[in-house]
Amino acid sequence: MFKWVNPKTKIEAELSVPEHVAIIMDGNGRWAKKRGLPRIMGHREGMKSIREAVRTAQELGIRSLTLYAFSTENWTRPEEEVSFLMKLPKQFLETDLKELHEQNVRVLVAGDTSKLPRETREAVDEARERTVANTGLNLVFALNYGGRDELVQAMRSIAVDVQSGSVRADDIDDRMIGERLMTHVQDVDLVIRTSGEQRLSNFLLWQSAYAELHFTEVLWPEFKREHFVEAIESYNARTRRFGGV
Ligand code: IPE
Ligand code: IPE
Ligand code: MG
User: Fold this and answer.
1) What InterPro entries does this protein's entry cite (predicted)?
2) Most Cβ neighbours (<10 Å): which of 54, 98, 109, 122?
């Protein structure tokens, strides 16, 4: 529960907090374009919003925060932009890992890191290893992540076990598939997407089966604490039925 006074209505409310929030951080390019800047400047500015979102998630008591940083489809962008995006995780961790670690944050990565440049891979591996025993916020970076790719990997790994005889086809159930996904985190309760687009773009397809969706027009570099809390307020106004009545 999170105590919160709505700045518009001045009404105090107790918000129940979703355990797992996932954010599609979209609109960096448009933010830059609006200012006549190159797209990469939008990505740089977006890092500040990442910091603020992590702080807010901790303040609210969210268990896991998954951030969509680079999709399996984002490789089709101009090479200059891709190479800039690939440098950001290392830059971010160089400045922030120490503090995250002190705050007991556990850093995780979902996605195929084998395709990342070596320096990027080493930086994220170091962050994972250093924070592996931390018990605070789970901060998951979806990096070279695709929901379909994740399901393909899971199915391959099950197929290997079926072939070797350690798993029978009848034993395959949704728990087994869930356990073989890259994220190893629980189902998503709330997906937030910035920039006005209303689609999932291959994000957490399996884990979002019953997620609530919150779309905001705010571009990612402008997404601040108040917008995050707004999303939590909107989540509180929903009735989750999970197929029941
Ligand atoms: C999101 O912003 C960041 C990544 C996809 C890496 P975009 O770069 O997609 O920004 P827009 O959608 O072009 O404005
Ligand atoms: C989704 O945004 C990927 C990330 C935020 C990392 P995109 O901007 O790549 O998605 P589309 O192309 O608009 O669907
Ligand atoms: Mg986009």
Assistant:
1) UPP_synth-like, UPP_synth-like_CS, UPP_synth-like_sf
2) 109
Find out whether 73 is annotated in a ligand binding site. yes
- Distance (Å, whole) CA 60 – CA 2: 6
Q: What's the pTM value of the predicted model, to 2 decimals?
A: 0.96
Angle between helical axes of 39-60 and 79-102 (0-180°, round to 10): 30
Consult the annotation and say whether 180 binds a ligand.
no
The answer on pLDDT for 184 being more than 70 is no
Please tell me if the CB atom of residue 75 comes closer than 6 angstroms to any atom of ligand 2. no
Query: pLDDT by residue (tens digit) across 92-119?
Result: 999 999 999 999 999 999 999 999 999 9
Q: Position 175: which residue type?
A: R
Structural domains in the chain plus CATH codes: 2-236 (3.40.1180.10)
Pocket test for ligand 1, best of 24, 26, 73 (most atoms within 8 A of CB): 26
Which of the residues 26, 138, 144, 202 is marked catalytic? Answer: 26
- Among protein residues, the one whose CA lies closest to atom 10 of ligand 2: 201
42 near 29, Cβ under 8 Å? yes
pLDDT at 1: 84
User: Is the distance from the beta carbon of residue 141 to the nearest atom of ligand 2 less than 6 Å?
Assistant: no
Which of 71, 58, 53 has its CA nearest to residue 192?
53
CA distance 143 to 146: 9
With CA atoms as reference, report the closest residue to 204 among 185, 223, 228: 185
185: confidence class by pLDDT, cuts 50, 70, 90: low
Residues 6+ away with beta carbon under 8 Å from 75:
82, 144
Does residue 56 have a known ligand-binding role? Answer: no
